[in-house]
Amino acid sequence: MTRRLALVLGLSLGLMPGLTPAAEPPVPLTGAEFEAYTTGKTLTFSQSGEIYGAEEYLPGRKVRWAFTGDICRDGSWYEDAGNICFVYEHDPTAQCWTFWREDGRLTGLFIGNAPGTELSEVAQSPDPLPCAGPDLGV
Questions:
Q1: For the chain, what is the domain count?
Q2: Is 61 a domain residue?
Q3: What residue numbers bound the domain in which 117 lies?
Q4: Is 32 part of any domain?
Q5: CB–CB of 79/86 below 8 Å?
Q6: Beta strands per DSSP E along the chain
Q7: Rounded distance between C-alpha atoms, residue 98 and residue 31, angstroms
Q8: Which of 134, 135, 119, 127 is nearest to 70 (CA)?
Q9: Residue 19 domain flag
Q10: Cα–Cα dist 28/97, whole Å
Q11: What does the pLDDT look like over 88-111, one tens digit per residue?
């Protein structure tokens, strides 16, 4: 009986040789932590290895977002129930995410999306987001 209990405890704690414990779930960033990490930066995000878009984080919780190859959209963000929610001028519907740091970079999962669809920070810059206007060109 003691041997059986030790085996069960060892398995549940991941202490058995050759077995690794389950990964800890990520700890979501608070609004203050998200603000401290992002303000003054332009972050580029990828999804499944493909560049998805970039966002510039301005003072006062203002943002400027652009999908890859698209025009920039201005908006703002706020914290709600532990999530970071964005509202853009072109669409007043809140878009809420859970963000955490992974390997020193920002990772986010849109609320309602399945794991595996996260956006991952792949680059950061202090420079403004380059925005093409809708009426540029000849």
A1: 1
A2: yes
A3: 26-125
A4: yes
A5: no
A6: 42-47, 50-58, 62-67, 73-80, 83-88, 91-102, 105-110, 119-125
A7: 10
A8: 134
A9: no
A10: 10
A11: 999 989 999 999 999 999 999 999
